[in-house]
Amino acid sequence: MAVTELGQALRRWRDRVPPDAAGLPSGGHRRAAGLRREELALLAGISVDYVTRLEQGRAVNPSVQVVEALARALRLSGDERTYLFGLAALVPPGPDVVPGFITPSVQRLLGRLVDTAVAVSDAAMTLLLANPMYAALMGDPSVLRGFERNGVWRNFTGMATRVRHTPEERRDFEAGMVAELRATAARYPADRQLQSLIAELRTRSERFAELWDAGVVGRLAGSHKTIEHPQVGTLTLDCDLLRVEENDLHILVYSAEPGTEAAEKLRLISVLGTQSLVERS
């Protein structure tokens, strides 16, 4: 019965989310005003088949990460999120776990920044949500899975990136990321996924292990970012890091001063094509 109720709830919530509210195109022939299954799957970072099996009651054990991603994609309130976890026979992550919940108010704020590249990460720098403009600027993050969605992991394991650093900028950026992660680990010492991330990074990256053992502590700050875009070339943007202290979220906003070459290149990127909103799974 609980599984059936879970499927019914997912379908009901899916039907009430207008595609344009989630940053998706709303044109074309649609049988319902809400999200299609494939759109929910894209937003939550899971397969369409899995969404179908959940709605039909053929999948019975969604993970905490999947339920959290579905709650974000469906723009659930705090009470609705708690109810969804209960239907999945799970307990919502407690205060000892890095929060991954994006409140409806933050969702509305992001929905108004359609012409600005914006991404939301948790306190461990794991990507939760990226808007279409961010995907167009930085590359499609929907292909990233597991630790690949973590910014520290990507930077210390040599994954491809469009950001270009000078050697000095690279050193400062790496130290800042490790300092931020250490501070997060101190706030959430019981988060097993975070501890696993740190242990894997110490094994995979000598540079990370060196900085971690040095005990650097602090917070990442906003900076200028030089990005090499495959179609418009190189552009340097302001990258502001905004913090939602109550939910321990990071909002990265990329912008350019109006009238500059970088601003024109950003406009061109938005015309060339964007990627739909994506969420972590």
Radius of gyration: 19 Å
- Tally the helices: what do you get? 12
Question: What series of H and E elements makes up the topology?
Answer: HHHHHHEEHHEHHHEEEHE
* Distance, first to last CA: 25 Å
Which word captures the global form?
A: globular
* Beta fraction: 5-15%
Main sheet: strand order = 3-4-5-6-1-2-7
- Give the biggest beta sheet: 7 strands, antiparallel
Structural class: alpha+beta
Task: Count the E strands.
Answer: 7
Structural notes for this entry:
The protein has 281 residues and is α+β, with helices and mostly antiparallel strands. 45% of the residues lie in helices and 14% in strands. The chain contains twelve helices and seven strands. The protein has a seven-stranded antiparallel sheet. Strand 5 and strand 6 form a beta hairpin. Helix 2 packs across helix 3. The longest helix has 21 residues. The C terminus is likely disordered.
Short description:
The protein is 45% helix and 14% strand.
List the helices and strands and how they pair.
Layout: H1 2-16, H2 37-44, H3 48-55, H4 64-73, H5 78-87, H6 104-111, E1 117-122, E2 127-130, H7 132-138, H8 151-156, E3 163-164, H9 167-187, H10 192-204, H11 206-214, E4 223-229, E5 233-244, E6 249-255, H12 261-272, E7 278-279
